[in-house]
C-alpha cells in the first residue's frame, strides 16, 4: 500500500484467491470481453491496483498478460466488488452472453 495505491499486498492476495477460487468463469469472461483476448479459453486474476485489474489469460495454450482499467480510481476495498460485477456484466453484453443474475 502506498499513497498512490490504497491496496496492501495482503488485500490483493485475498481478492485474487477469491476471484480465482470462486469466480474463474467470470475472470475468463472479463478477459475475453474487455481485455482484447476474445479467444482466451481461461483466465486467472494475477493482480490489481487502484487503477485496474490484471489477468493471465490462456490463448492458444499460452498465458498472456491482460490489464483492464477500472471505470475510475478505486480507494476502498468494497469498490473492487462493484467494479468486478460491472466488468462482468459489460463483458457479457460485449460477448452476447446472458446476464449473470447470481452475483
Can you offer a commentary on this structure?
The protein is an alpha+beta fold. Helices cover 43% and strands 23% of the residues. The chain has helices spanning 9-22, 24-34, 77-95; strands at residues 42-49, 52-59, 62-69. A three-stranded antiparallel beta sheet has the order 1-2-3. The model has no long low-confidence stretch (mean pLDDT 94).
What is the gist of this entry?
This protein is of the alpha+beta class and 103 residues long.
Summary tags:
3 strands, Split barrel-like, 103 residues, three-stranded antiparallel sheet, alpha+beta
How is the secondary structure organized here?
Blueprint: H1 9-22, H2 24-34, E1 42-49, E2 52-59, E3 62-69, H3 77-95
Antiparallel strand pairs: 1-2, 2-3
Helix pairs in contact: 2-3
Structural class: alpha+beta
Distance between the termini: 28 Å
CATH topology (fold) name? Split barrel-like
Which outline best applies? globular
Which radius of gyration do the C-alpha atoms yield?
Answer: 13 Å
CATH architecture: Alpha-Beta Barrel
Number of β-strand runs:
3
Taking the sheet with the most strands, its summary is:
3 strands, antiparallel
Query: Helical stretch count?
Result: 3
Q: Indicate the CATH class.
A: Alpha Beta
Helical percentage: 40-55%
Strand content: 15-25%
Tell me the strand order in the biggest sheet: 1-2-3
Question: Could you spell the SSE succession in H and E letters?
Answer: HHEEEH
**Count of separate structural domains:** 1
CATH superfamily grouping: PNP-oxidase-like
- Average residue pLDDT: 94
